[in-house]
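Lecture 7, part 2: worked example. A protein chain together with adenosine-5'-triphosphate.
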Amino acid sequence: MKKFKTESKKLLDLMINSIYTNKEIFLRELISNASDAVDKLYFKSLTDSDVKVGKDELAIHVGFDHDARTVTVSDSGIGMTKDELEKNLGTIAHSGSLEFKTDNAEAQGDDVDIIGQFGVGFYSAFMVGKEVRVTSRAYGSDEAWCWVSDGVEGYTIEPAERAAHGTDVVVVLKDNADEENYDTFLSEWGLKNLIKKYSNYVRYPIQMECEKTRELPKPEDAGDDYQPEFEHYTETETVNSMIPIWKRSKSDVTEEEYNEFYKSDFHDWADPARTIKVHAEGALTYDALMFIPTRAPYDLYSKDFKKGLALYSSNVMIMEKCEELLPDYFNFVRGVVDSQDLQLNISRETLQHNSQLRAIAKKLEKKIKGELANMRDNDREAYEAFFEEFGRGLKYGIYSSYGMNKGELADLLLFYSAKEQKMVTLDEYVAAMPEGQDSIFYAAGESVDRLAKMPVVKAVMNKGYDVLLCTQDVDEFCFQAMMGYGKPAAEGEEFVEKPLKNVASGDLGLETEDEKKAAEEAAKENEGLFGAMKDALGEHVSKVSVSTRLATAEDAPACITAEGPVSLEMEKILSQMPDGGEDIKSQRVLEVNAQHPIFATLKAAQEAGDADKVASYAGLLYNQALLVEGMPLEDPVAFANEIAKLMK
Ligand SMILES: Nc1ncnc2c1ncn2[C@@H]1O[C@H](COP(=O)(O)OP(=O)(O)OP(=O)(O)O)[C@@H](O)[C@H]1O
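Predicted complex, written out as structure tokens:
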């Protein structure tokens, strides 16, 4: 037996125990080696007229023997001589494939795509195998050799038999232990799954003998009670689909084919809303195929959801979900990126340089954004359906970046316009703003119908201004992070942002000079009344004041607004959060309509010294305003009792 050198032994131990996180990739590595071997022979046939092999003779075979506990990967490739077995498999980190690639760098065209480069992949077989036997016959040689090793001490090379050129790698699996079970590698289903997962796009057919059943023909003399009989048989099946759809030119692929690929590879039953194909050449050459789904997967908004695109290099899957390729707010995009130029880490599980990924991600983000903008502008119905499913994520993207992402995302948002009675973009809202309107108004609450009836909304609408009715919990948080919205109408034009204002908060600055004056006067005149009302309401409000937004007898008698950064709707949402949001309160102001007949009644009660009536009416006004604004009453029984008292 030839012993591995001490350094090699250490390296081998490292290889087997530390480099890979996932044992199952051993099959990917052996299949990649087989594909390289076949590729090398094919390349020879192209460059040397003495070598005659047809592409259809070239295949890879995967099989297993349950009783012997072996998995075998065979190829009809270039094979290895005794010397090559020694050099390639006896020396860790010696890559015959890299040598081949370097030697033939000039002559290689698109027809060859060698995967190996580090000279370590083969040894991953020892993660699952207690012994590996490699029987190989080099092309053009009439002798075969068998290399055998336990992956610990060393290896032997003995003469062997093989009918034709090529290599068989037989992995004798380790025994099952408590924490490891290798039986999945001893089933047709388990191996097929791994081939599909990692090696589906290897360019040569990967074949397996597959078990099938078929019904036997019904005998002519079968009686009425004949039960159909079945037989088992095996058939050679090609498991991989070979040609990656993303490498085919867009004009050669039908929409149907893209849809089928999407549905089968990403496990969706609905066609995608959009398909985005990218082919980039230059410093980094790559292909990408991305899909915008029609509907959100059930776990999109859960913590366990993992975003990412599948990453392939030389047709072999490196990562199932490469997170770095997508920003969080486009987490719903599914797809594939494939590049031969990626500098892989030795385990092929990550890349050496994330800057390569960043460059790709940046370009892809632009493409996705462009596709969404195109859908928004040219197929509004489809875009609204998209937004219904995924809009929350876009808004959350603005909120969670404290508004930093608004440049990328804000023009993709849609909100319900009270005036237009349909979904509009912020640009459409701004474009329709009448002369003199300098803010974007919105209201937040549970439903559009309810919001449309709110006095604070009506008051702004009566001035001729539109109000965006926001019904998602994230809406107001998103707007607060944005603070304002605007973009230059034309290139080079000045950039003016319109502030975003909640119609139920603070001073909107919409009152006329006359209205302002009237309110100031009413406040001064009725200082005593407002003081008494505030006392009656206690901690519930920070202030009782004359409303400037409710300014005619037809408007509501009172409304509640919030001073400061926390609105009533935000308070409601925060109070429903599991982690202590209930402590965050808005500063409520009870605004009273001084033109409303009820105000006259209140004034009269105050003048007559009827403190009980003032207190009771203050409570009633406060509670009914809460009801209108969709806020819970603190004491519904007391409220009902007060009303009953009035009705007696
Ligand atoms: N089935 C095979 N047929 C012919 N040669 C093979 C086969 N398997 C392995 N080899 C040779 O053994 C070498 C070492 O294989 P190994 O899988 O360790 O590394 P690699 O494929 O070169 O690189 P990587 O670590 O990137 O996969 C290969 O470069 C190749 O020359």
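The chain is about 35% helix and 20% strand. The first helix runs from residue 6 to 19. Keep this in mind for problem set question 3.
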